[in-house]
Design goal:
By secondary structure, the chain is mainly alpha-helical. It has one domain: ABC transporter involved in vitamin B12 uptake, BtuC (Orthogonal Bundle), CATH 1.10.3470. It contains eleven helices and two strands. The chain is globular and about 60 Å long.
Length: about 300
């Protein structure tokens, strides 16, 4: 039972990691029906920025909580700026182009950012300091859950609730829903859809940066390629849960995390990806819209 609990919590943590990235995928797709394949690289850049800031702040003798907060804020600002820039340069000019064009642009931007960071920093793995302090109230359970895992779980829950409330009850959230439903009608009622789309990219990039800081601190190392692997898994989770749905992105991420964790624990780590993607295929065969996605009819 203890082994099962360890695998369950491990899968929960892994799923929460995917969720912080998948939320950005699902928001962007819900607004403009674009798969932003450069989103994983935004997550990677957020981790690198946090490492640079943390390295500088450590020299001034600040405590870990202060370093974590400052590094996270700077990483969010930088990642949001990158997300906004990518939207303006790579996607906005192709807004009315055939659907394949922005997809190719997204893949190209992903490759560009990977190589840019690889050249500017290094292509080797770099150690990342543990910025999350040990919480005293978790001391009796330290063999079951680490402070970094607890922080990831709590942060994911807070981000999901925040985004849900933002989209349901705020003015910009209503504008996002209107834009997702019908861009032409949204423009007719005075909504600036360009501003809404840009805000969505900024929001998604910010959540990815938060994930980058926490995940890098939890794992203890980063390199220029971590965004690609995490991005593919997070995209799979978003599709699994129903891309375009915030609760669906989180549910899909958790299901994927548990699948990988139990497959690794009870079968073999060699089959981790096999089970994950096999589950995706089965879900899409029997429920193409995903676990929480809504089926839509295409007018012709």
């Amino acid at each position: 039972m203890e082994y099962f609990l360890d695998l369950f919590l491990g899968g929960l943590t892994r799923g929460s990691i995917y969720a912080l990235i998948a939320l950005g995928y699902t928001m962007v797709y819900g607004i403009i029906e674009l798969i932003n394949f450069a989103h994983g690289e935004i997550y990677m850049i957020g981790a690198f920025i946090a490492l640079i800031v943390a390295s500088v702040l450590t020299m001034y003798g600040l405590n870990m909580i202060s370093i974590l907060l400052i590094a996270s804020i700077v990483a969010v600002i930088y990642a949001a700026a990158y997300g906004l820039t990518i939207e303006k340069i790579a996607y906005k000019p192709l807004r009315k182009a055939p659907r394949l064009s922005p997809l190719i642009s997204a893949i190209g931007m992903s490759i560009l950012l990977q190589n840019y960071v690889g050249i500017a920093q290094t292509k080797d793995f770099i150690p990342f300091p543990n910025l999350i302090p040990e919480f005293a109230f978790l001391a009796p359970y330290k063999d079951t859950i680490r402070s970094s895992e607890f922080m990831i779980l709590i942060t994911t829950a807070i981000v999901m609730v925040f985004l849900t409330l933002l989209i349901k009850f705020t003015k910009i959230g209503k504008a996002m829903r209107a834009t997702a439903q019908d861009k032409q009608m949204a423009m007719l009622v005075g909504i600036d859809i360009n501003r809404v789309i840009s805000f969505t990219f900024v929001l998604g990039s910010s959540t990815a940066a938060i994930g980058g800081v926490l995940i890098a601190s939890h794992i203890g190392q980063i390199n220029f390629y971590i965004g690609f692997i995490a991005g593919i898994k997070a995209f799979t989770a978003a599709v699994l849960g129903g891309i375009g749905s915030i609760p669906g992105a989180v549910l899909g991420s958790l299901v994927l995390g548990w699948t990988e964790s139990f497959a690794t624990g009870y079968i073999s780590s060699d089959y981790e990806d096999v089970f994950a993607f096999s589950l995706l295929v089965l879900i899409l065969i029997f429920k193409p819209e995903g676990l929480l996605g809504k089926s839509t009819t295409q007018k012709v």
